[in-house]
Specification:
This protein is about 40% helix and about 20% strand. The chain is of the alpha/beta class.
């Protein structure tokens, strides 16, 4: 494509995680598999906590966010109805070197992948924790009353638990499938815990679109995102080959399993049940004093 043609297009900067599920979801947009019309997409790959924090300055037109992070972003972003990562009776996990029960986690030092992650919110709800430092304020250690925490890169957490540098680790992404390879033990699957508590899936991540783009552009970009997700599901082997480039320590079978966990019918559209789950999670966070204000949800269907 010539520079002149590119310059005439509307530039959309997209942020998403360098993980198999996001790579699968964005494969069609990243590799020109669908016609994007007047839009030109630029992809920036960063871990989810970094993207949550970048969203405060609204740098990106379209960005992956944690649902917990979104609670602080409603003035700048709306949620795309597509692109959800839902834990349907599975989700972030707490793992340890030695077998433990949930109650044994009280008073322990837990490695977490970021204070704005939904995993951290769910952990606090599970253990009746309440952080003394706002999730929005950048920091690397803190106290939730029920436990203390240290922030690590998500892909370092299994290692620091294995080395005994912390008592437990809160793991997201493919670590949910690989923790056993490092001899670690599952204490609680927060997706299962949430399902038992509410009967609903645990909404973890979403894509958020910047409100100042205006409704027509928000609708069209969301439609293109949905088309990209559907393309991946319709051309699974092709999209999986692309996703494998981001599958740390995953063979093709495990990458396929992981993608299936987080790119599925929920990803095409939250649906009524998914939206109910988002609303309930954020209401619970507010009621527990973790989220400071009630969250008004806005979904863009495209």
């Amino acid at each position: 494509m010539s520079n002149a043609l590119t310059e005439n297009k509307i530039q959309i900067h997209v942020g998403h995680s360098p993980d198999p599920d996001d790579a699968f979801m964005f494969h069609a947009l990243a590799n020109d598999k669908i016609d994007t019309g007047e839009y030109q997409f630029h992809h920036e790959l960063q871990d989810i906590e970094t993207l949550n924090r970048r969203a405060f300055s609204a740098e990106l037109e379209l960005t992956a966010v944690s649902l917990h992070g979104y609670a602080y972003l409603t003035d700048k972003y709306a949620l795309c109805a597509c692109g959800a990562s839902m834990g349907d009776n599975y989700g972030p996990m707490v793992v340890t070197r030695e077998p433990m029960e949930i109650d044994d986690l009280k008073g322990k030092r837990i490695a977490i992948p970021g204070t704005l992650t939904t995993a951290f919110l769910a952990l606090n709800l599970c253990l009746d924790g309440k952080p003394t430092t706002s999730a929005k304020e950048p920091h690397t250690t803190g106290d939730c009353g029920a436990f203390t925490y240290e922030v690590y890169e998500f892909d370092e957490i299994l290692n620091v638990v294995e080395r005994g540098e912390v008592d437990a680790g809160l793991i997201i992404h493919e670590g949910q499938l690989t923790y056993g390879d490092q001899g670690l033990h599952l204490v609680v699957d927060l997706g299962k815990w949430w399902m038992e508590k509410t009967g609903l899936p645990l909404p973890l991540g979403a894509n958020a679109i910047r409100k100042d783009m205006g409704q027509p552009q928000m609708d069209e970009v969301t439609r293109l995102l949905k088309e990209s997700i559907q393309f991946g599901l319709d051309h699974r082997e092709d999209a999986l080959t692309h996703a494998l480039k981001y599958g740390r320590n995953l063979d093709r079978a495990k990458a396929d399993e992981f993608v299936g966990m987080y790119v599925n019918d929920w990803t095409i559209d939250f649906g009524e049940r998914g939206r109910e789950a988002v609303a309930l999670l954020l209401q619970e966070g507010y009621a527990a004093g973790i989220i400071p204000e009630p969250v008004e949800l806005e979904f863009i269907s495209g």
